[in-house]
Write a structure and sequence with these properties.
The structure holds 2 protein chains of 2 kinds.
Chain A lengths: L9 H14 L6 E5 L2 H9 L2 H4 L4 E5 L4 H4 L2 H11 L4 E5 L14 H6 L3 E4 L4 H9 L4 E8 L4 H14 L4 E7 L2 H13 L8 E4 L2 H6 L6 H6 L3 E3 L4 H17 L4 E3 L11 H10 E3 L2 E4 L3 E4 L3 E3 L8 H4 L1 H11 L11 H5 L31 H9 L18
Parallel strand pairs in A: 1-2, 1-7, 3-4, 3-5, 5-6, 7-8, 8-9
Antiparallel strand pairs in A: 10-13, 11-12
Chain B lengths: L4 E8 L4 E6 L2 E6 L11 E5 L2 E5 L2 H17 L2 H4 L13
Antiparallel strand pairs in B: 1-2, 1-4, 2-3, 4-5
The complex binds iron/sulfur cluster (SF4).
The site of iron/sulfur cluster has 14 residues of chain A, from helix 16.
């Protein structure tokens, strides 16, 4: 496939890795955090840790949208789904995330509630039109990539004056979470980050400019990388070179899709429909100011948090009586880069993708799921074993 | 769900909808977020929406950069048997 195969060339990958190995300074370790679930997935799928020298440490950040959604918001979605008039629509990965009281949207669906997996938020418009006597709620999650499609759907529903569609908005902002991780670092919980591998598709929308504060404020370089293995290796090399040269800047490896200012049309519709939330909770990072979006007043008729305010309040009152997160689950630490999935006592037994006990085991972009799928049989210290690279058709 | 893929535009209906070739499958996609699309263009597809047009010149430039990297590597390093993962980066 064009734009895919040529960025997966095995020979070039080996040469890039050899260049990296030749350029890293002995006695120095390079702690690089990738901030994108897609990168986490690519790194494991192509066995990149095995290609890289041992002093390159890849740390997985909070870039998986399913993983960072806090239980409280998932519980709210489940409360909406239990309403007999509601059809709750969301992306497939969300269905399996465990919420409070050991339940999930999948279990709630099995109990007879109408929960539907959608491939695109645009499907919700059709479902609303086909079910005029039902309330269709789109449980919207995701970073800056998923937000513009939701905005288009809200704008369209508003124009169509669809009375029975609303959106439960949980869209969050990547740069805010990167700030959050660097801020927890300064507050004493030491996760060392020498550089960021900047997200691919998020950056196609927001551009490279929003990352400028990271070199300026924190002295942390950022290299935006595409999703394919050669992209990630190239970004690692670019970061190594910056660190070796004592440079600290935003560089862009993914120039075929990322510009300085991003996709103006997408940013405009997001700006039209959404505004900043004062504060929002992230799994692992806690409440962070200005880190998420809410629906603007002009579109409030389509905001599920307003349409179902009474029901959500009732639910909030009941919730305090339910058992909370699985205490032994280390997702919060995994999301901050403080722990490796293998450090979790539940990893592999009993927590698996078929029986996820935490959000990081659900989506293929979650660090736990990626470790489970591609890294389980490997040695604890990556890059010293020559395990066969796991491949996928 | 974050996984997005490059697909080729085969037919444009109007400013909202187009038919894309997704690994041989034809599928209707929403193109409301991208301006100036033409048949034959490649876009990044995410949750049913085209998110960004891919720039062919830039793609070629990046690939050229990879190739350059390779040439800089001393031959003995490239063939160093101790290097893990002998190139099995397969799709
Ligand atoms: S292995 Fe399971 S329980 Fe442990 S941190 Fe990951 S998701 Fe949570």
């Amino acid at each position: 496939m064009k734009y895919v195969d040529e960025f997966r060339d095995g020979e070039l990958a080996r040469l890039l890795a050899a260049t990296i190995a030749a350029e890293v300074q002995p006695g120095r370790t390079y702690h690089l955090m990738e901030f994108c679930g897609g990168h986490t997935h690519a790194i494991f799928r192509y066995g990149l840790p095995d290609l890289l020298p041992a002093n390159i440490r890849l740390i997985h950040g909070a870039g998986c949208p399913v993983c960072v959604l806090p239980i409280a918001r998932l519980d709210m979605a489940m409360a909406l789904a239990k309403h007999p008039d509601v059809i709750l629509c969301t992306y497939g990965d969300m269905l399996r995330v465990p919420g409070s009281g050991r339940t999930s949207l999948l279990k709630i669906r099995a109990e007879g509630n109408d929960v539907r997996m959608v491939y695109s938020p645009a499907d919700c418009i059709r479902i609303a039109q086909q079910n005029p006597d039902k309330q269709v709620v789109f449980f919207a999650i995701g970073f800056e990539t998923t937000t513009p499609p939701t905005a288009v759907v809200i704008e369209q529903a508003s124009r169509l004056q669809l009375p029975n569609l609303s959106v439960f908005c949980n869209h969050v902002l990547t740069p805010a979470a990167m700030h959050g991780i660097l801020d927890t670092r300064s507050s004493g919980e030491a996760v060392r980050i020498d550089g960021f591998i900047g997200p691919a598709y998020v950056s196609t929308v927001i551009g490279s400019d929003p990352y400028e504060p990271f070199p300026a404020q924190y002295g942390t370089p950022v290299v935006i990388a595409g999703f394919e293995p050669l992209d990630v290796l190239q970004a690692v090399l670019m970061l190594v070179r910056q660190l070796n040269d004592g440079r600290c800047e935003v560089e862009n490896e993914f120039t075929r899709a990322v510009t300085h200012s991003g996709n103006h049309k997408a940013k405009a519709v997001v700006e039209q429909v959404f505004e900043l939330r004062d504060t929002f909770e992230w799994r692992g990072l806690g409440f962070m100011p200005n880190s998420a979006l809410q629906i603007r007043e002009q579109y409030r008729a389509l905001d599920a948090e307003y349409r179902f305010a009474g029901l959500l309040q009732q639910h909030a009152d009941q919730l305090s009586r339910l058992p909370q997160d699985n205490k032994a689950c280390e997702c919060p630490q995994v999301l901050r880069g403080l722990k490796n999935p293998r450090d979790c006592k539940l990893f592999d037994n009993p927590c698996t993708p078929d029986n996820p006990l935490g959000s990081c085991m659900v989506s293929s972009e979650g660090a736990c799921a990626a470790y489970y799928q591609y890294g389980r049989v490997k040695d604890r210290i990556p890059a010293v074993t020559v395990a066969p690279t796991v491949t996928e058709a | 769900m974050c996984l997005a893929i490059p697909v080729q535009i085969e037919q444009i209906h109007d400013e909202f909808s187009a038919i894309a070739n997704i690994g041989g499958l034809k599928k209707e996609i929403n193109i409301a977020l991208v301006d100036d699309l033409q048949v034959g263009d490649y876009v990044i597809l995410h949750v049913g929406f085209a998110l960004k047009k891919l720039d062919e010149e830039e793609a070629l430039r990046t690939l050229a950069l990879f190739a350059e990297m390779g040439i800089d590597v001393p031959a003995e390093l490239a063939s160093d048997a101790e290097l893990p993962g002998t190139g099995e980066v397969v799709s």
